[in-house]
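To: structure desk
From: M.T.
Subject: fold request, one chain
Message: Could you run this one when you get a chance? Sequence is below, nothing fancy, just the single chain.
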Amino acid sequence: MPEFMYKNKLYYNPVEFAMDRIGGTWKMPILWRLQDKIMRYSQLKKDIPHITDKMLTTQLRELEEEGFVHRKVYPVVPPKVEYSITEKGKTCIPIIETIRNYGLYLIEEAGIDHKKK
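Reply: Done. Structure tokens follow.
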């Protein structure tokens, strides 16, 4: 496949393009949590405690911009914002599940006790 441009960035293959959309440390964990429920920012932050506020905000904005996440703002004081996965976002859940299962395999292979106590 020849190289191509998207939003002023050069890509060399489809894997690179896909990983730029949903890759990195945080996008897949965010999508995984939104697959079954609508969540507020504070709920996501509590569920992923080791993510910084700045990074969570950035990742949510990028996921929204790419059409993987929907952001709904309610006109109330204080502001209420909910995040949900879109149909496009749901298409990557099987990929995330495969990566998750492989991660569990690697954890078990390494003999790491990962079960919640």
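Reply (cont.): The radius of gyration is 16 Å. Let me know if you need anything else for the meeting.
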